[in-house]
């Protein structure tokens, strides 16, 4: 398949636009200050509350900031926000960015600055807030030194319980939180072009019935990788309501599993001779292992990493076995899986955000190139086989006309023989020799190659296989295999393989010959 220049240019222009917009977001982003990462006071909240509670109440508790959890609860939390002159320097309005799976109402130094949704005692009363919200902070409320942030929060609308539902509370110049987040995702978005090209390329090759199963698997892998990238970067594109965050996290893990399973299925098909059912059984065992890992791992970064580690371990074990059996390309796969596993282990979530997508894009780009080379070679072979089919038709037509036999010069051990072509049934490659099969059943070895003799033979002879040339005068029958290939049955009982591409021409020519003989 040839990719047209204009769509390709448009695709890369779109990728460049993603990169430039992300870079602009990174350059425009102002420095941000985190709330202090220290134990915080937490009190029970009520719909009737008009402001922060008395945190000295014995009913309140002190928890780690990482244990702050509003899921299924309605609570108040007091956090300390340390600011210095550098943090208060610059121009423009101030803003407080609240990032987490919750609805919230925020007070700074005792004054309400705004709300993100509406926290409440139960699901019915709550209005879901956005996953990331920026609230305007008047200059008069901010002071140099310690500032107090009180947040009333609830999270009744999620359906997956997260280990860390509160992600960050940040202070800085007022800005759209999605621009801040997109700065972290833009390097990964560049790879989206590769995933889109892979989906189109492999989808078209599958639709055209060229390597259908392999092409479908790679098209699905491209779809999973591209979908995971879009879902992963969605937080940097739009501030969605917090209930969607659960769906986003599940989709990321599912897409990671789908991509890795499609890639493993492709490798099982390419590197083994296993039947479809055996390959399916192995993949099912990997899926079961992934399900156990997902159930045991805490946090969705851990679940996604666990899914990928499972696939990497399976691929590494299979590649090592294939390397021992000297399968082509197996050593390269061992290195790829080992390096990917090491990077995931060392960099963790950093690899999941960027390195994973570049690795996936690199693998798919290589497979696109490999498949394109294979298609070019296949089309070249089709042209050769089509030419041979035409030659076969001409040869059979020549045979029907009962043309005069030719004398063929054959050399063996310094001796030259002249053999009449009408005595030869078949020529077969035998290393550095050619094995001739005669009408009377005799066989003789002569020095040379099939390619060298092919040009000297009369039209009645045709090379139907790289190891076989047949005299069409002695073709008595044609049998078709279920795979689409065929076999020529010669008068001496020899069976010669016929390519699937040549089969229609052979069938037509032999049918014409049968009609002529009947006449």
TrEMBL record:
**SMART domains this protein is in?**
LytTR (SM00850)
Q: Which Pfam families match?
A: LytTR, MFS_Mycoplasma
Entry-linked InterPro entries: LytR-like, LytTR_DNA-bd_dom, MFS_Mycoplasma
The residues that cross the membrane are: 184-204, 216-235, 247-268, 280-300, 306-324, 331-348, 354-372
Localization per record? Endomembrane system
By its UniProt entry, which Gene3D superfamilies does this protein fall under? LytTr DNA-binding domain
Query: Which keywords has UniProt assigned to this entry?
Result: Cell membrane, DNA-binding, Membrane, Signal, Transmembrane, Transmembrane helix
Q: Where is the HTH LytTR-type domain?
A: 408-512
Signal peptide range? 1-24
Q: Mind telling me which PROSITE patterns this protein's record contains?
A: HTH_LYTTR (PS50930)
Q: Which GO terms describe its cellular component?
A: endomembrane system
Superkingdom of this protein's organism: Bacteria
Q: Name one GO molecular function term.
A: DNA binding
Question: By what name is this protein known?
Answer: DNA-binding LytR/AlgR family response regulator
Query: Which organism was this protein described from?
Result: Maricaulis maris
